[in-house]
TrEMBL record:
The keyword Oxidoreductase applies. Keywords: Oxidoreductase. SUPFAM superfamilies: NAD(P)-binding Rossmann-fold domains. It holds the Pfam family adh_short_C2. It comes from Rhodococcus jostii. GO terms for molecular function: oxidoreductase activity, acting on the CH-OH group of donors, NAD or NADP as acceptor. It comes from the Bacteria. One of its GO terms (biological process) is fatty acid elongation. This is NAD(P)-dependent dehydrogenase, short-chain alcohol dehydrogenase family. Coiled coil: none annotated. PANTHER family: BLL7886 PROTEIN (PTHR42760:SF135), SHORT-CHAIN DEHYDROGENASES/REDUCTASES FAMILY MEMBER (PTHR42760).
Length: 262
């Protein structure tokens, strides 16, 4: 299937690792140019930069100005992406309970998981509206509708992110801009499986083994495994393309059947 993304400039947040890196790769494979934001590019994103179809922007997207700086880098290329992928996010397990989650924890989570998307979209929309077209795809999470006290602030931030995206889709639809979310279950990235990832943090707290924690989580899906980042990327890139031209205001779950309800 030709996604007709050749010549498109896309903005991807949280692009140096994990799902964002896979989305960047997939967009480049479809012929798009990607302006890729993370605090530090890392070797894999740098390799993509050497391929000539990626500009890496070192930026803290949790700050008030960071998202605007990333979008400005795309605008400076002459044409802002009509594709914006809000992917950046982080989860910190709260294993000692809600009462230990401080205001600072909540604000940090909301800045990165919700406001980074709000600010990126705010910066990008004027050009998209002028173009009269575009696609915004945001990485939410199954936790947006599967609230979990061990990631209580993360769950709330993702619920807000999905809700925000749906509201925005209603305003932007008549202007030719589509707004969708994808909601992965556990994905095999550093967020879950890294040295400071969820599995290691949970294992440390319980004196267990990170691999056993991950295996237990994988078994909760009917496929028995984590989703791979490239599988999320394929879904995102389809939604980014005009092949999904009448898809807006929707949330797409990719979780190996973890969520068993309709
Ligand atoms: N993995 C999962 O199981 C899973 C499930 C559902 C949803 N998600 C969502 O998917 C998205 C990506 O997650 P992932 O698993 O790919 O995470 P990841 O492997 O930890 O990668 C996160 C990316 O975001 C960047 N980043 C983090 N903080 C940043 C900041 N303040 N400013 C700029 N960039 C920042 C990181 O680069 P730097 O560290 O260099 O900044 C990295 O490129 C997140 O929104 C997450 O909530 C993940």
């Amino acid at each position: 299937m030709d996604l007709a993304l050749r010549g498109t400039v896309a903005v991807v947040t949280g692009a140096s690792k994990g799902i964002g890196l896979a989305i960047t790769r997939a967009l480049v494979a479809e012929g798009a140019f990607v302006v890729a934001g993370a605090r530090s590019p890392g070797p894999e994103l740098e390799e993509l930069v050497r391929g000539g179809m990626v500009e890496a922007v070192s930026v803290d997207l949790s700050t008030a100005d960071g998202p605007g700086e990333l979008v400005a880098a795309a605008t400076a290329r002459g044409s802002l992406g009509v594709v914006v992928v809000n992917n950046v996010g982080a989860a910190h397990p709260r294993l000692t309970g809600f009462l230990d989650v401080t205001d600072e924890d909540w604000i940090t989570t909301m800045n990165l998981n919700l406001l980074s998307a709000v600010r990126t979209i705010r910066a990008a929309l004027p050009t998209m509206i002028a173009a009269g077209k575009g696609s915004i795809v945001t990485t939410s999470s199954v936790n947006s509708f599967l609230p979990d006290p061990t990631v209580i602030d993360y769950s709330a931030s993702k619920a807000a992110l999905t809700n925000f995206s749906k509201s925005l889709s209603k305003e932007m639809g008549p202007l030719g801009i589509r707004v969708n979310t994808v909601s992965p279950g556990p994905v095999s990235t550093a967020l879950w499986l890294g040295d400071d990832g969820v599995a290691a943090t949970v294992a440390r707290a319980g004196g267990g083994d990170p691999a056993a924690v991950a295996e237990g989580v994988a078994k909760q899906s009917v496929t028995g495994r984590f989703t791979r980042p490239d599988e999320v990327a394929d879904l995102v890139v389809f939604l980014a393309s005009e092949r999904a031209g009448n898809v807006t205001g929707s949330d797409f779950v990719i979780d190996g059947g973890l969520v068993t309800t309709l």
